[in-house]
Design a protein that fits this description.
Blueprint: E1 2-8, E2 11-16, E3 20-25, E4 39-45, E5 48-54, H1 55-58, E6 71-78, E7 84-99, E8 116-122, E9 125-130, H2 138-144
Parallel strand pairs: 2-9, 5-7
Antiparallel strand pairs: 1-2, 1-7, 3-6, 4-5, 6-7, 8-9
């Protein structure tokens, strides 16, 4: 399976490449008042507002630090009824595309953040998949996608 690899803190994570719509340079974001701290803000994408999640903050680490290789990974986020909307994921140290043996991926066997999925080990170290379906709590999904019929 092809994956987009990035870091959250010192650890390696990935999204299935099929889930990635675009990768953009980190950009200025408009704050969303009263949103959870891990909501980095809104990205102006050709005139359309796109909510952006700070993956470091979501994982309980220090809020984002912008590096030369920080990127906003755009995904088509699935909503109720089969609709999708763009969602940005601010990630530090985006490495690029790599291959992972799907059969070698295992359940981590520990309770952790609900959005973190299976892991694989390689010579490059452990890699954990991000589960987009479990990324946002229902109340945050409703806050960010009010006009898309997203309800808790």
């Amino acid at each position: 399976m092809k994956v987009m690899v990035f870091h959250i803190g010192a650890d390696r994570y990935a999204l299935p490449l099929w889930a990635v719509a675009r990768v953009l340079p980190a950009a200025a974001l408009k704050a969303i008042p009263l949103a959870p701290a891990y909501v980095a803000g809104l990205l102006d994408l050709h005139g359309a507002p796109v909510p952006v999640i700070d993956l470091s903050s979501l994982a309980g680490l220090a809020p984002r630090q912008l590096w030369y290789d920080s990127r906003i990974i755009l995904v088509d986020y699935a909503l109720a009824g089969g609709a999708t909307r763009p969602l940005g994921l601010l990630a530090e140290h985006v490495v690029g595309v790599d291959s992972v043996d799907s059969d070698a991926m295992r359940d981590p066997g520990v309770a952790g953040a609900p959005f973190l999925g299976r892991v694989a080990a390689s010579a490059k170290g452990m890699l954990q998949l991000v589960n987009l379906d479990a990324l946002l709590a229902p109340d945050v999904r409703a806050l960010l996608f009010q006009d898309a019929g997203a309800t808790p």
